[in-house]
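Hi R.,

As promised on Friday, here is the backbone we talked about, encoded as C-alpha cells. Could you run it through your design pipeline when you get a chance and send me back a sequence?
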C-alpha cells in the first residue's frame, strides 16, 4: 500500500462514510484508525448479554438516516413510543406527546396547552434556516410566552442538541433536530455497533482497505500540496487526498504549520459538549409505563431503548440515562443524580440490575453551530491542496451523526468537483456564516 488516491484518517461514522463515497467514485481508498476496531464513538459494547452504546443513541430522520438508506443499509430496529414523563421539582408528570396527554398533563394551564400545540404544529412546517443566526434562548423567548411551555421547549431542545445552556447553540440546527425527532427516531437492534458493521461491510465490498491499530502521526505537505501520510509505526502512504475525520484538535496537530491555516480557526472556535452516561440492564421493570423521561428543571434524560430495539439476548431491559454537562463536571455527583432519576422512574432497580456501564464524561461533539462561531469548518482546508475535514464538528447546520455524514459527503463532493481545476477554487465551498 505505497500509493493510494485517498487516505481517510479516522474510522468513525464520518471516516467510513467518506471512504464509501470516495470508493463509489472509483478512488482507491484506505481508512486508518488508531483503535483496534472501527466505529469511534458509535461502537457498542456487549456486557453479560446486553448491548450498550456509548450512551443513548437514536437515529433521527436527518442526513445520516437518508445517507444510510441511500447506501442500502438495513438499519434494523424500531421507533419507540413517544409517551413521556417530565421531571419537575423531583416529581414525574406526563408530558404532552399526543392529544390525550396534552389535555391531561398537569404541567400546563389551558392557555399553555394551546400554545404548546400550536407551536409544535407551526414548527413541523417551519423553514428553520431562518433561525440559524439566533440562539435557542432568543428563539424560545421570542416565540413562546407561557413559562412552563418555555421550560418544556428548553428541555426538548437540550435533548436535541446535548447543549445545556440556551445562549450558545444556534436555534436553527437544534430546531431541525427537534423536527427530525418529531418524525420519529429509530433505536437500532444490537446498538450502533451494527450500523458500523454494515458500513464496514459496504466499504470493504467497494474495495476500501483498512488499517486498524495504526495511528497517523503527521501529514506530509510540500508546496502547499498533500503528498504523504505518515504513521507512528513507520508506514508511509503516498496520496493526493487526505480526509481528516478526527477531532479538530487532532486534525490541527497532524498538519505542519496548521496555525497558518483555517484549521487553527476551527480548533480555536470549537466548543466541546460532554455528557455523563449511565446505562443499565434490568431483569424487569417495576413501573412498566415509566420508560421515557425528560428533565425539565434537571439537565437529565432517560430512555428504555429496549421498548423498541433488541438490546439483550436474555430479555433484559436496557435503559440509558444522560446527564447533560456544562463546563464544571463532577462524576460522583452526576452519577448520584442519574441514579436518583432511576429511583424515581424504576424504584427498586438495584435488585433487578444485571450489568451497568458508567461513562463519567464523554465527548458528544467536539463543536457545533454556536453563536461564537466565526465560520463553518470545511470541507476543504483552503490553504492546502488535497486536504479535507469531516466529523460531527464540521457541521454546516446539521447536528451530531447527521453532521458526520453530511461533512463526509461534502468533502468527497468537493474533492471530485475540483479534479483538474485550479487550486484557489478550494475557497469555493467554504461555509462562512
Ligand atoms: C453519549 C452520546 C450520545 C449520542 N447520541 C447521539 C444521537 O442520539 N444521535 C446522533 O445522531 N448522534 C449521537 N451522538 C453522536 C455520534 O456518536 C457522533 O456524532 C459520531 O459517532 C461521530 O462520528 P465521527 O466519525 O465524527 O467521530 P469519531 O466517532 O470520534 O471518530 C473519529 C475516529 O478517529 C480516530 N482517530 C483519532 N486520531 C487518530 C489518528 N491520529 N490516527 C488514526 N485514527 C485516529 C478515533 O480513534 C476515532 O475512531 C452521541 C454521542 C455520544 C457520545
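Update: got your reply. Pasting your designed sequence below so it's all in one thread:
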Amino acid at each position: 500500500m505505497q500509493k493510494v488516491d485517498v487516505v481517510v484518517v479516522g474510522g468513525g461514522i464520518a471516516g467510513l462514510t467518506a471512504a464509501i463515497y470516495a470508493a463509489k467514485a472509483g478512488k482507491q481508498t484506505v481508512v486508518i484508525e488508531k483503535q483496534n476496531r472501527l466505529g469511534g464513538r458509535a461502537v457498542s459494547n456487549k456486557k453479560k448479554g446486553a448491548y450498550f452504546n456509548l450512551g443513548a443513541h437514536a437515529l433521527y430522520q436527518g442526513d445520516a438516516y437518508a445517507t444510510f438508506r441511500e447506501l442500502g443499509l438495513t438499519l434494523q430496529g424500531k421507533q419507540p413510543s413517544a409517551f413521556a414523563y417530565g421531571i419537575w421539582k423531583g416529581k414525574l408528570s406526563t408530558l404532552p406527546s399526543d392529544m390525550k396527554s396534552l389535555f391531561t398533563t398537569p404541567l400546563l394551564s389551558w392557555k399553555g396547552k394551546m400554545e404548546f400545540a400550536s407551536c409544535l404544529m407551526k414548527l413541523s412546517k417551519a423553514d428553520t434556516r431562518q433561525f440559524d443566526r439566533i440562539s435557542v434562548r432568543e428563539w424560545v423567548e421570542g416565540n413562546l410566552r407561557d413559562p412552563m411551555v418555555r421550560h418544556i421547549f428548553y428541555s426538548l431542545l437540550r435533548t436535541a442538541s446535548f447543549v445545556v445552556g440556551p445562549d450558545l447553540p444556534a436555534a436553527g440546527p437544534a430546531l431541525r433536530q427537534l423536527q427530525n425527532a418529531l418524525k420519529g427516531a429509530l433505536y437500532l437492534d444490537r446498538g450502533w455497533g451494527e450500523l458500523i458493521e454494515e458500513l464496514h461491510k459496504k466499504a470493504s465490498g467497494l474495495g476500501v482497505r483498512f488499517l486498524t491499530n495504526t495511528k497517523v502521526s503527521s501529514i506530509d505537505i510540500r508546496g502547499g500540496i498533500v503528498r504523504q501520510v505518515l504513521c507512528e509505526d513507520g508506514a508511509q502512504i503516498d496520496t493526493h487526498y487526505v480526509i481528516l475525520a478526527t477531532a479538530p484538535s487532532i486534525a490541527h496537530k497532524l498538519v505542519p504549520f496548521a496555525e497558518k491555516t483555517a484549521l487553527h480557526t476551527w480548533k480555536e472556535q470549537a466548543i466541546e459538549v460532554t455528557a455523563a452516561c449511565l446505562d443499565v440492564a434490568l431483569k424487569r421493570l417495576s413501573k412498566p409505563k415509566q420508560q421515557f423521561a425528560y428533565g425539565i428543571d434537571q439537565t437529565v434524560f432517560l430512555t428504555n431503548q429496549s421498548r423498541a430495539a433488541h438490546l439483550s439476548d436474555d430479555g433484559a431491559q436496557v435503559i440509558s440515562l444522560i446527564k447533560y454537562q456544562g463546563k464544571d463536571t463532577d462524576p460522583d455527583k452526576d452519577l448520584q443524580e442519574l441514579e436518583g432519576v432511576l429511583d424515581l422512574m424504576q424504584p427498586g432497580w438495584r435488585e433487578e440490575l444485571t450489568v451497568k456501564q458508567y461513562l463519567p464524561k464523554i465527548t458528544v461533539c467536539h463543536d457545533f453551530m454556536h453563536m461564537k462561531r466565526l465560520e463553518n469548518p470545511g470541507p476543504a482546508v483552503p490553504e492546502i491542496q488535497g486536504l479535507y475535514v469531516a466529523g460531527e464538528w464540521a457541521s454546516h447546520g446539521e447536528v451530531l451523526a447527521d453532521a458526520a455524514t453530511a461533512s463526509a459527503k461534502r468533502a468527497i463532493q468537493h474533492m471530485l468537483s475540483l479534479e483538474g481545476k485550479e487550486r484557489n477554487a478550494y475557497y469555493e465551498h467554504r461555509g462562512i456564516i
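One thing I noticed while checking it: The domain at 6-36+212-270+369-432 is CATH 3.50.50.60 (FAD/NAD(P)-binding domain).

Thanks again,
M.
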